[in-house]
Design brief:
The structure is a homotetramer of 207-residue chains. Chain A has nine helices and two strands; from the N terminus they run βαααβαααααα. With 207 residues, chain A is mainly alpha-helical.
């Protein structure tokens, strides 16, 4: 009765892994080497120190993308087969992930400037809101067409995941709004959210 | 009688997946961070808004490459073994895919300029025409040497794929020509083509 | 009694392989093409020769990252399952690996300048110290929760790996300190360390 | 008597595939978008046309790296297990492959300039000589320790591969020398060599 529809997820996972791995590794390219006007060791240390917004952006986005990869991984332990709408939703998800090096670079460029850093942080948060929406979309498509899911998943597990994804989206949206009040609180929310998602065990296992 | 010739496609698919995943993720590198002349939040939002041609180019090429990956995936559900001509044809295909970040950047640079955007859009379209030709070539090689195909594929399925690939090539060529009349129609054709290819189920299954 | 906890390592290894492969290949992007002020073959050869610090940086970091990949590979012949803390530790490890193109570029930019090269070499070494610490952390997490390890590993093998990882960390720290005395000795230590790690057989097999 | 030594090649092949796929896709990044001084469609077409050395470099290196990947693939149909020397030799091989985007960019920058293109072409060829040497080295290590090879390989097949690799190295060296006489002949030799390697079936099968 539960005949599988759609194709297996193997190559989709491999392709997605590739995009996650590349996006996370491209982050470093946005950190420019201190220019030719450096003539003493002290100048170099100082110039390397001045790049702290780049290190903050690199570390934060590395964690964010890394934890998104972990969650993507977890998602496809439930979704066992893919149809075309799911492939396209996953493509939108990867579009958000692949875009992240750009808002990260914008954030790094403006984080030290009090007059523009709120805008840069909000732009960064908006990208995460988009990505979180595509995670929700991918999950909804998978949940709706039950035959795409593995058979062992209990009803309560499904609900738990749905709630967690919705909560994450709300937190990303909140953090984006908070950027206009205080960028450090906004970025801390992103960090805590990444660590919470990274360390908590999978929903399906808990239930 | 149908002894397999050629090697299995596993590593070819993994290598191709890699090129698709990298090309799609490199697209973001063409979006430059707004320069140092920005001093207010309003300036930054305005500068980020002025980058709309970059976002259009990023989103369009992400979809185009993503859907090409989906179709490449589908193609190698039929082609089960590879010989050297097919490897080289696939290499030409990847050469087109890997080149796309360049015309995308050209498009993004010129899309806001009425006097050069037709040329930029035609150049973009020409790259897709080339890539579509290599898709056709790969398929023709696979179809000709029947022993490379999986055994379960019906004659009608073969014909359906052949026709679809030829139609896609004609559409890409038409969109390239239309670029000289109206770039928005040209780009819309590319978008619709990507969505049509992305959402329609595989030909072999339909027949 | 030894029921497996955590998930299998397959996708973690694939993702990590991706980050290693991308970081190692991005190294070349930091070598800029000699500019437009070159008009004779002699000028070009001279300009290409002047880039020797880039070649040193490229070759050294290629070996360092490559050998780290070999060791990561070896590590996950022991660690057979992953839990969330191990995933996050591995993410920190990849954060160090993915960062390496930046200190490599800093090193290449300053290696020919006697007044700044000590600082650049120390910065480079500090990144390796961080990465080595994350290797130790990943191993400690794996070793502590015995159920993550493969069952065939003898107690003595565990101890050997623990010692080797601690020794490597001490050597990286020493090399970083030596950078302030003599950069060539410091870089030689990094090179010897990479070759020693690269050529010596796995600890688990030796015991 | 033929107990396998060394580890299986799976992850080595995946890692190598990654480096090949990334190096081949990074080639496009060296093609810069025509600058802001372009105001008419004619100017843009002309600027895009002036980039022909970039297209030549892109196409040639794409074929060269792609065919090296095919040959690497073929090599590891014979070499079934890896030991540490072979891992390090393979790392040197990847170091040559990963370096290729740089000489390709140098070639593209100077190919239109009669006074510097010989040097640029020789530099390009020298990189291929290095890479070919590492291919030979990898094969020699594999051949020497017979237990690393698959058991089905006949003695004559071994000899055929050894000869082919040596011939390829000699051709690369010849092409590099010819660059000082005529760059077009030199580049044609590289092209023909790539096509010959790409289209000819594997040595082991022929014998």
């Amino acid at each position: 009765m539960n005949t599988p529809s759609g194709a297996p997820t193997f190559r989709l996972e491999a392709f997605s892994d590739g995009v996650f791995a590349i996006a996370i590794t491209l982050l470093v390219l946005e950190i420019r080497v201190p220019g030719p006007g450096i003539h003493t060791a002290k100048d170099l240390w100082s110039a390397l120190g001045d790049k702290w917004p780049n290190y903050v952006g690199y570390a934060l986005s590395f964690l964010v993308i890394g934890v998104m990869w972990i969650n993507h991984h977890a998602l496809f332990e439930y979704i066992k087969r893919v149809n075309r709408p799911l492939l396209v939703a996953n493509l939108l998800l990867l579009m958000g992930v692949g875009f992240l090096p750009f808002p990260t670079a914008v954030l790094a460029e403006h984080l030290a400037d009090p007059s523009t850093r709120s805008a840069a942080t909000a732009f960064y948060g908006a990208t995460l809101v988009f990505t979180s929406m595509t995670f929700n979309l991918t999950w909804w498509i998978g949940r709706k067409e039950r035959s795409l899911l593995g058979s062992e998943l209990p009803q309560r597990g499904l609900r738990t995941i749905t709630i967690r994804y919705a909560v994450a989206l709300a937190c990303y949206a909140a953090a984006t709004g908070i950027a206009f009040i205080n960028v450090w609180i906004s970025l801390s929310v992103h960090l805590v959210l990444a660590l919470w998602n990274g360390f908590s065990e999978r929903a399906g296992r808990d239930s």
